[in-house]
Amino acid sequence: MRIICVRTGDKFDQWYEDNLKYMIDKYSCLEYDEFAVIRDEEYEGVFNKLQMFDRYRDGQNLYFDLDVIIRGDCNNFLKKDFHVCHAWWRKEWHTPLNSSIMSWEGDRSDIFKLFEEDPEFYQFKYNKGMDQFIHENIDYKMYSWNDDYCSYQTVMHEDRYKVYLFNQNYQKMKSPAWYHKFLLPL
Fold first, then answer.
1. Cα–chain-centroid distance for residue 120?
2. Which residue in 166, 111, 117, 113 sits closest to 133, CA to CA?
3. Partners of 164 in beta bridges
4. Nearest to 50 by CA among 150, 118, 147
5. How far is C-alpha 186 from the geometric centre of its chain's CA atoms?
6. Which CATH architecture has domain 2-182?
7. What's the CA gap between 43 and 55, in Å, rounded?
8. Domain boundaries, the chain
9. pLDDT, tens digit, for every residue of 64-111?
10. Is the pLDDT of residue 145 over 80?
11. Which three-class secondary structure string do you get for the chain?
12. 167-186 as b/e, with b when 16 or more CB fall inside 10 Å?
């Protein structure tokens, strides 16, 4: 089993990468063989995530964004079929999915190969990002909202959720709040 994250550009510093591994090791109950970090900046922003589908073509894979809080068992996120989060908090004009957590087993290099056919075109066309690219081109399944994750944009207090997605609010993770007890000390 492989845990994957992406840290490209200068948005996230080393603390976010170390913090994700810390929370996975301490709270997730996941048993994994590899903690893989993609650092190669080949594309614009979030499109760098797509590299994982080319690099990791075997075994069970579980991806997490760096701006998540993990505070409980994450084994329910392990899926054979390609899964993404259902973004129930998003406006209708956006995509219904969120790629903060993704899971698949085996070879899904088809996702990367499609993008690689014309990366400049896809990065221009999908101005809402990789989520829009996946939504409009790839067969996927979604975790349901009751799969123990939520967006911090809609649930800002500690609740029953095992994973909190910060969805572009990563700076708040370093501000004092209830979730600091789950984080690697700053």
1. 23
2. 111
3. 69, 150
4. 118
5. 22
6. Alpha-Beta Complex (3.90)
7. 15
8. 2-182
9. 999 999 999 999 999 999 999 999 888 776 789 999 999 999 999 999
10. no
11. CEEEEECCCCCCCHHHHHHHHHHHHHHCCCCCCEEEEECCCCCCHHHHHHHHHHHCCCCEEEEECCCEEECCCCHHHCCCCCEEEECCCCCCCCCCEEEEEEEEECCCHHHHHHHHCCHHHHHHHCCCCHHHHHHHHCCCEEECCCCCEEECCCCCCCCCCCEEECCCCHHHHHCCCHHHHHCCCC
12. beebeebeeeeebeebbeee
The two structure tokens encoding residue 170: 């990563």
Query: Which residue do the tokens 């572009």 mark?
Result: 168
Strands 60-64 and 97-105: antiparallel
**pLDDT band for position 16 (cuts 50, 70, 90):** very high
CA 149 to chain centre: 12
Q: Which amino acid is at 92?
A: E
The residue type found at 89 is: W
| 178 contacts 157 by C-beta, under 8 angstroms | yes
